[in-house]
Amino acid sequence: MGIRVKIEFLGGLDVISSGVREHKAVVPLEEGEATMKDLVEYVTHNIISDPKDIPVFIEDDTVRPGILVLINDTDWELEGQEEYVLESGDVFTFTSTLHGG
Fold first, then answer.
1. Torsion (CA) 74, 79, 80, 83 in degrees, nearest 10
2. With 0-12 CB in 10 A as exposed, 13-18 as middle and 19+ as buried, what is 3?
3. Alpha carbon distance 5, 31 (integer Å)
4. Rg over CA atoms, the chain
5. CB within 8 A of 97, min separation 6: which ones?
6. What SS3 class is residue 51?
7. pTM metric for this prediction
8. For residue 34, with 0-12 CB atoms within 10 Å meaning exposed, 13-18 middle and 19 or more buried, which class applies?
9. Across all residues in the chain, what is the average pLDDT?
């Protein structure tokens, strides 16, 4: 059945998903099995529109520095980062903290 989640890209990061800031997604894994690492892989393969933009989001197999990651409005560092177990209804927010100017 999959895990229904909401994924948001803020701070200009929506450029990697064709300008779409909010995505409702179904991660094709069972609840209790999927982790944040699986979600990052899902985003890389299913939401990032151009493979050339993957390095904007991923570095060394994880979310690159300069991107704030929130899980249900809580910093992912407090939630176990990549080990967090996904639940239906979760909201994942990725915000670029790097701005030009």
1. -100
2. buried
3. 11
4. 13
5. 11, 66, 67, 68
6. helix
7. 0.93
8. buried
9. 93
Beta carbons within 8 Å of 74's beta carbon, 6+ residues apart: none
The token pair at 26 is 């179904």
Instruction: For residues 72 and 50, give the distance between their C-alpha atoms in angstroms, rounded to a whole number.
Output: 27
For residue 22, what pLDDT is reported?
97
Which domains does the chain show, CATH number per domain? 3-96 (3.10.20.30)
Task: Please say whether the beta carbons of 50 and 10 come within 8 A.
Answer: no
Q: What residues in the chain have per-residue pLDDT under 50?
A: 101
